Amino acid sequence: MSNFTYKVYGDVFSGNCYKVKLLLHQLQKPYEWIPVDILQQESRTAAFLQRNPNGKIPVLEFASQEYLFESNAIMYFLSEGTDFLPNTRLQRSQVLQWLFFEQYSHEPYIASSRYLIRYLKGAEKYKTVLEEKSKPGYAALDVMEQHLSRNQFFVGNKYTIADIGLYAYTHVAEEGGFDLSRYSAIKSWFAKIESQPHYIAMG
Amino acid sequence: MSNFTYKVYGDVFSGNCYKVKLLLHQLQKPYEWIPVDILQQESRTAAFLQRNPNGKIPVLEFASQEYLFESNAIMYFLSEGTDFLPNTRLQRSQVLQWLFFEQYSHEPYIASSRYLIRYLKGAEKYKTVLEEKSKPGYAALDVMEQHLSRNQFFVGNKYTIADIGLYAYTHVAEEGGFDLSRYSAIKSWFAKIESQPHYIAMG
């Protein structure tokens, strides 16, 4: 019998997993972290596929042995009713808008490039793929920069899970070969996030 | 002054836009549809980028001239407080889990293949890309088939926006070269959706 409310299956250097870890820390919720090594195919075992049939991390396990997957859905679950999710319907929807933007227009380029370089050590092997990911990756950063040049945070000028969702892979984008030097609004937003109560660094 | 509560900027043959149209019909909400031709770059004009800085359709416009983008976030907005979104936190999070699955693990393969073939007429030109999209596309269909072989719908055995989100591109997956003949649970789920009140076909 576990003393923890939640178990998290994840990898501490995965941005998607870090979203869940950072939010749990900021909510001051106890949890048990179960390391999963995706390079060893540990997210593809029969036991793991019972938790997430899509074979991806992170997965949140409840004391009831139910499971929730998809990092942004897990953040929604953990934040509902807290200061990390706005209390108006339009602002909640705007939080989700930015989280869907993150998964569709940002993660496949920025996180994915970092994965090829950092995890697979494939800067040379995947040179062409990395070049293809560069333009859409910078386009996503441009959208963020434009928004942050006029707003303190992504939604309602308050720190929410939309910021956590976009921070996770953006703050390590340079590990994927993206140069952040001209993104001054993004960099000042990093500083605002890193000064939030109970912030912890990736790892 | 518009008589409509909402304007929708979209393309009636885009699955992402169809999600919004189908839900608005099923909610019996009046709306004005503003056609956007992405092949003519109409989602990249300066005026359009004011509505969605990411230059994608659909976009929902409110009478207040505020905007919401990302199809699944728009569906969340429209369905909150209705029968199309569950009333427990875990089930709402499970709906989002499947919608994030749709955008990350399904749409980039299944919708994208259809786009290359149907919109760009590129079955030959994009042969290699289409081949690369085949395996992850079928993997997404397998995850759906497995879930639907044990459940009537995606969440709580009730029809929700998770079903609309996944139906939109799955029911036209054959236009992207995916063979659905062995997916019997998916096909019987299609029939259940198509018999819902106020269902309308794509187009």
From TrEMBL, chains A, B:
<dbReference type="Pfam" id="PF13409">
    <property type="entry name" value="GST_N_2"/>
</dbReference>
<dbReference type="InterPro" id="IPR010987">
    <property type="entry name" value="Glutathione-S-Trfase_C-like"/>
</dbReference>
<dbReference type="Pfam" id="PF00043">
    <property type="entry name" value="GST_C"/>
</dbReference>
<feature type="domain" description="GST C-terminal">
    <location>
        <begin position="88"/>
        <end position="203"/>
    </location>
</feature>
<dbReference type="InterPro" id="IPR004045">
    <property type="entry name" value="Glutathione_S-Trfase_N"/>
</dbReference>
<dbReference type="GO" id="GO:0016740">
    <property type="term" value="F:transferase activity"/>
</dbReference>
<dbReference type="InterPro" id="IPR004046">
    <property type="entry name" value="GST_C"/>
</dbReference>
<feature type="domain" description="GST N-terminal">
    <location>
        <begin position="4"/>
        <end position="86"/>
    </location>
</feature>
<protein>
    <submittedName>
        <fullName>Glutathione S-transferase</fullName>
    </submittedName>
</protein>
<dbReference type="InterPro" id="IPR036282">
    <property type="entry name" value="Glutathione-S-Trfase_C_sf"/>
</dbReference>
<dbReference type="InterPro" id="IPR036249">
    <property type="entry name" value="Thioredoxin-like_sf"/>
</dbReference>
<dbReference type="InterPro" id="IPR040079">
    <property type="entry name" value="Glutathione_S-Trfase"/>
</dbReference>
<keyword id="KW-0808">Transferase</keyword>
